[in-house]
Specification:
β30 and β31 form a beta hairpin. The radius of gyration is 34 Å and the shape is flat. By secondary structure, the protein is mainly β. It has five domains: 30 residues; 87 residues, Immunoglobulins (Immunoglobulin-like); 83 residues, Immunoglobulin-like (Sandwich); 66 residues, Immunoglobulin-like (Sandwich), CATH 2.60.40.1120; 317 residues, Methylamine Dehydrogenase, Chain H, CATH 2.130.10.10. The strands form 14 sheets. Strands 2, 4, 5, 7, 8 and 9 form a six-stranded mixed beta sheet that branches. Strands 10-15-14-12 form a four-stranded mixed beta sheet, with no helix packed on it. The N terminus is likely disordered.
Length: 643
């Protein structure tokens, strides 16, 4: 013990000093340097618009634990990496307002670095493009394959548009070259690793104002080792082969190789034939087969000749009778087999389309200034004299009231017995056919440039909406009460039930066609610029299909989504819901205002100025179950929402 004490007295003090010297480097080496934080975009003092990409970089002599972004001193985003990117929506901010952007970063020792403050001013040079829908393209592929994706949107100002895809793999592709508003861009992408990717796209206009990113398209990329194939055959050959909703670029008969195992959908499309679709189970290292005999459609079942141009749109009456007028001054009833049943003579051309009441009685107008009501056996029930030609088509209220416009500028309301109830005076000819909403409100256009909403009880005006041209287009009414119609000012309009503008879209010509609504809410309408347009309920252009002449015929939507309409180029068209041609039939003269009806068995009925009414075959099982699938709402042409 004495020895120990002696040694402690000898080395104890030195030991303490040694320990202190050993620990000093640890204390002195503790990290006290904060990260360096830089906002790389946007620039200080600049202007911003649309969706702004804010980027921040942080560096540290050790590492960066987190980066936080603050806008106007509010934390908006934090990441646990040294690089931060954030999409800032400035569209809802006040024009000319200034905002501060700052970023902070922490290292593992909790040292905090702070960027210089960036001040920007919001200046929107234009409205942003509409947010695109999810990109179109394959939902599956293989590592290294070149996959094709498509995107489309519209710009409310009509500006050209550029697109940027987000492939979901961390890469940042360049913006595409600019294209016209509403056009489709195509980009290819090869994924280098297997996995699930979410592909999105955004758009910007020529001012650099950017839209939000679209919803994502999920794409599953598989390794090349696990593949099968599909042999697609058809009679006749030459049909486009679509796999899971995407055109493969091949036509039958052909082999599709390197297909991911699992259930796949094969569709075959050939102009003039019904689309064929089959579910196929693909097994690795095996070949599945699809063998199809395609059904010919778009052919004449029968045609019935009259003595004049047919501008009237057919209705389907009791027993499937096809009812329509002709410029030979007659009204016709033809059986569903194309045999003559009876005709009725008036004093002038019958351009008006018939409306059939629930009791089978038929109502229509004539250029001889009369409104007619016929029994289902085509015997006159009553007539009523207006003060000018009647080319618009009657609408029938739920109580049987007949509403019809005349060249005398009036909207007439008559009882089901043909007695006068009231008339509403507009400022010019009424060639637009009335439409009746769920609450009974009557909507009708006039050549005085207005669309009117009329009270059914007494004919008083609820409201009127002024456009820049004549309104001969007849309204369509959506389930939420939105009123769609066109004007000769080149615009297509969507109004709320209280007359406020929901949206409008400028086409390249007068809009005399009347709109129809598909089961998915898509609105279809033609224009004198030769196009049929398809819009989302929000007013975004989905696609446009070009014909060789004015599209004044109003579209009808089949239960399978096919859209049927005529054009002044003399064709009756069938276009798929994605804007691709299914078939077309050439008549001998322009199809001007006659609009198709779709029978329960899928027969398409439409007139032409070549004096014929045509019955054409289709693969639609009937009329779409939508709020307003055709001109005057339904095959009876009642012009009224509901059954």
């Amino acid at each position: 013990m004495n020895v120990f004490k002696k040694e402690w007295r000898r080395w104890g003090a030195l030991g303490v000093l040694a320990a202190v010297f050993l620990l000093m480097p640890l204390a002195c080496g503790r990290d006290k340097e904060p990260p360096v934080v830089t906002i790389t975009s946007p620039a200080d003092g600049g202007t911003v618009s649309g969706y702004v990409s804010i980027t921040v970089e942080a560096t540290d002599d050790d590492s960066v634990a987190s980066v936080t972004l603050l806008i106007n001193d509010f934390e908006v985003h934090t990441v646990d990496t040294s690089y931060l990117e954030y999409e800032w929506n400035t569209l809802e901010l006040e024009e000319g307002s200034t905002h501060t952007i700052k970023a902070t970063a922490l290292d593992p020792s909790d040292n905090e670095g702070e960027s210089e403050i960036v001040t920007v001013t919001v200046m929107q040079p234009s409205d942003p493009p509409d947010t695109p829908d999810a990109p179109q393209g394959p939902s599956a592929g293989f590592v290294g394959d070149a996959l094709t994706f498509r995107a489309r949107t519209a710009d409310p100002d009509g500006d050209s548009i550029s697109f940027q895809f987000d492939w979901g793999d961390g890469s940042v592709p360049d913006w595409t070259p600019y294209v016209a508003s509403g056009e489709t861009v195509t980009e290819q992408k090869s994924f280098q690793s297997e996995g699930t990717y979410h592909v999105k796209v955004r758009a910007k206009d020529t001012y650099g104002v950017t839209s939000a990113f679209s919803p994502g398209l999920t794409v599953v990329i598989s390794p090349l080792s696990s593949t099968g194939s599909i042999q697609a055959n058809s009679v006749p050959t030459g049909a486009e082969i679509w796999l899971d909703g995407t055109n493969t670029g091949k036509t039958t008969n052909a082999l599709l190789d390197k297909i991911a195992p699992g259930e796949r959908t094969v569709s075959l499309r050939k102009e003039g034939y019904a689309d064929y679709q089959a579910k196929v189970t693909v097994v690795a290292e095996q070949t599945a087969e699809v063998n199809a005999t395609l059904e010919r459609i778009g052919e004449v079942i029968w045609q019935y000749e009259t003595g004049g141009e047919i501008l009237s749109s057919p209705a389907i009456g009791s027993g499937g009778m096809i009812l329509f007028g002709s410029s030979d001054n007659k009204f016709y009833a033809v059986t569903s087999e194309g045999n003559p049943f009876k005709d009725f003579s008036t004093g002038d051309a019958v351009k008006s389309s018939p409306a059939v009441a629930s009791d089978g009685k038929i109502h229509f107008g004539s250029d001889d200034v009369y409104i007619y009501a016929l029994h289902s056996d085509i015997v006159k029930y009553w007539d009523y004299k207006t003060e000018a030609y009647v080319s618009s088509s009657p609408a029938i209220g739920s109580d049987g009231t007949i509403y019809v416009g005349s060249g005398d500028g009036n909207l007439w309301a008559l009882t089901s017995e043909g007695k006068f109830k009231w008339k509403y005076i507009t400022g010019n000819d009424v060639t637009s056919s009335a439409a009746i909403g769920t609450d009974g409100t009557i909507y009708v256009g006039s050549d005085d440039n207005y669309l009117y909403a009329i009270n059914p009880a007494d004919g008083s005006e609820k409201w009127s909406y002024k456009t820049g041209g004549k309104v001969s287009s007849s309204p369509a009414i959506d389930a939420d009460g939105t009123v769609y119609f066109g004007s000769q000012d080149r615009y297509f309009y969507a109004l709320n039930p209280d007359s406020t503008l929901k949206w409008s879209y400028e086409t390249g010509g007068k809009v005399n066609s009347s709109p129809a609504i598909g089961e998915d809410g898509t609105i279809y309408v033609g224009s004198d610029d030769n196009y049929l347009y398809a819009f989302t309920p929000a007013g975004t252009l989905k696609w446009q299909y070009e014909t060789g002449g004015f599209v004044r015929s109003s579209p009808a939507v089949g239960a399978n989504g096919t859209v049927y309409f005529g054009s002044v180029d003399s064709y009756i068209y069938a276009v798929r819901s994605d804007g691709t041609l299914k078939w077309r039939y050439e008549t001998a003269s322009p199809v001007i205002t006659s609009s198709p009806a779709i029978g329960a068995g899928g027969t398409i009925y439409c007139g032409s100025t070549d004096h014929y009414i045509y019955a054409l075959s289709s693969d639609s099982p009937g009329l779409a179950s939508s709020p307003w699938p055709k001109f005057c709402h339904d095959n009876r042409n009642t012009g009224r929402t509901g059954p």
